[in-house]
Design brief:
218 residues; mainly alpha; Arc Repressor Mutant, subunit A; 2 domains; two-stranded parallel ribbon; 6 strands
């Protein structure tokens, strides 16, 4: 909800545990809940913005107002839910086909038709080689300047500048191949070459009933 112009594909699993009629009913229910949730969010944001604009000292709340307006401008496209039986490889392939179909939709993803300079592909391939090498730890964290020095050792990338690398990293971050939090001061010099590591780490730290589990430790 905080990502500008984001596209979400809901996926329902455990279809093998449901009757066919149940799958249809649950699909409609989930999509209705999502629609209601988005409508409530839009209404709440508008309410908060109106309260700030109508306050006696609105100038004191400019930062909050700007953040809310930015959230309000984030459009969210929800695609139709795909129900999957994860025990059936054919169903997984259908899900893959559905994802590829949506990703190739130029109306959803205008970046699909963007023509990139050859150096973008060269850097992407070189980063993949570096990430897969034994010298890189499983977490895939690497200093930006060190990454530049490693890339410069590759053929055709000897003249790669830091500015161009940053442009390429923004693109690779946008499409999800790397993670680079350039807007966060303490992380701006760190590039995560293995985004899946972050996902695994977040799953360990942020999970259902975490507070209760921690409170249960003597």
């Amino acid at each position: 909800m905080r990502v500008p112009n984001s596209v979400v594909l809901p996926v329902g699993t455990h279809v093998d545990c449901c009757q066919e009629q149940e799958v249809a009913e649950k699909t409609r229910d989930i999509m209705a809940r999502i629609t209601a949730m988005l409508a409530e969010r839009k209404s709440n944001l508008a309410h908060f913005i109106d309260n700030l604009e109508g306050s006696e000292e609105p100038k004191f709340y400019v930062d909050q107002w700007e953040r809310l307006k930015e959230m309000e401008s984030c459009t969210l496209t929800i695609l139709n839910l795909v129900a999957v039986n994860c025990t059936d490889h054919r169903a997984i392939r259908k899900l893959e086909a559905a994802i590829l179909k949506h990703v190739r939709n130029e109306e959803l993803f205008p970046e699909v038709v963007r023509v990139l300079p050859p150096v973008y592909r060269q850097v992407e391939a070189a980063i993949a080689d570096i990430a897969g090498s034994e010298e890189v730890a499983d977490h895939g964290m690497m200093d930006l300047q060190y990454l530049l020095s490693k890339l410069s050792q590759h053929e055709n990338l000897a003249s790669l500048s830091r500015e161009l690398l940053q442009d390429i990293l923004r693109y690779l971050h946008h499409i999800g191949l790397v993670v680079w939090y350039e807007e966060i001061k303490h992380l701006e010099s760190t590039v995560f070459l293995q985004p899946t590591f972050l996902i695994t780490m977040f799953k360990l730290l942020v999970r259902h009933q975490l507070v209760q589990q921690l409170e249960g430790i003597s």
